[in-house]
Design goal:
Length: about 40
């Protein structure tokens, strides 16, 4: 009974981390696009 709940919490944490990573990548892409001098 305790294990599935922990799995759910871990999955949610993983999802949050993925979302944050995606947002950071999107932000970096926007910065690169908006920057006149690219890498």
């Amino acid at each position: 009974m305790l294990k599935p709940k922990r799995n759910m919490i871990e999955n949610r944490a993983r999802l949050m981390r993925l979302k944050r990573k995606g947002a950071e990548m999107r932000g970096a892409c926007l910065l690169i696009i908006s920057c006149p001098i690219g890498p």
